[in-house]
Amino acid sequence: MIRSPYLLYLGHSNDEVGIKTSRGLAVFRPDDCVGEFRHDDCALTLGLSRMTLEQAVAAGAKTLVLGIANAGGKLGDDLVADAIAAIAAGLDVASGLHNRLRDDPALVAVAEEHGRALHDVRDPRPDIPIGNGKRRAGRRLLTVGTDCSVGKMYASLCLERGMRARGLTADFRATGQTGILIAGSGVPLDAVIADFISGAIEQISPAREDDGWDLIEGQGSLFHPSFAGVSTGLLHGAQPDALVLCHDPVRDHMRGLPHYPLPGLKETLEANLAVARLTNPDVRAVGVALNTSKLAPEAAKRLCAETEDALGLPCTDPYAMGVDSIIDRITACFAPSPRVATLSR
């Protein structure tokens, strides 16, 4: 159990996308966040009180969350030094990076000396099965994207809030470090061995008989050369009834790959539907989610309207504009989920 309240780490970061874990916690679990820790060369802020490690401990913080996502998830020297200082000040440390805290001897030694805990969020369960693709009861929605870090988690969480506000049963299923920290459970999908990716999603989104929805957080993009494999396994394991396409309209190339332009929305949607049909031939698209945070309000509304006309799907910024139009489409398209009988043949 990762103890809260949290002190959110920004460190030396100057990449807004790179602090998405800290930002996600600040947005979706604000009551558990006492402040942010950043160095003088960090121009970013979450709008929280900037605190030293000692001030955070005095304010009640229990855990420093290394809420950054760098290329390859590396635990660099600066992160290790800050984590050691945090432990000495009286904080546990949690990280979702690929490099494990427990694999750094200096961190382990200091944590043992001070009686503090190290939490590696990107540790998958040891009992993940191989996916079987069998039809299972219940309804599942998966968010997919034109690229990495375009708002798939935000869209999923906003849909969960919106559906619950209407009295619908809906549960967010986390597949990344930020989502797991927010939800308290899930699977770090990009740390799962490739053969078990679809099985991991079947495991966290099993059959359900309550007419409820599992809202599964998407990862990567079928068009990103680095991460398309994870996206493919996720589509198969999710066995989605519905897809929501997520996109950042101001981005001009794949994240981290300036030599790869972003695919078109229609192209992306068609590719994801084609892959998803392997395990659910009846999958359909129910909406488009745009991250319009870099656009003026009127320009954002205009772009959403143009996208709706072009694709014939409701389009919104889930965080800034709400998700009512997408939920309307979901309720119109899907009756209460049928029970899936076990076939003997």
From TrEMBL:
Residues 52-124 form the D-glutamate N-acetyltransferase-like N-terminal domain. It comes from the Bacteria. Residues 130-326 form the D-glutamate N-acetyltransferase-like C-terminal domain. This is N-acetyltransferase DgcN. It comes from Sphingomonas molluscorum.
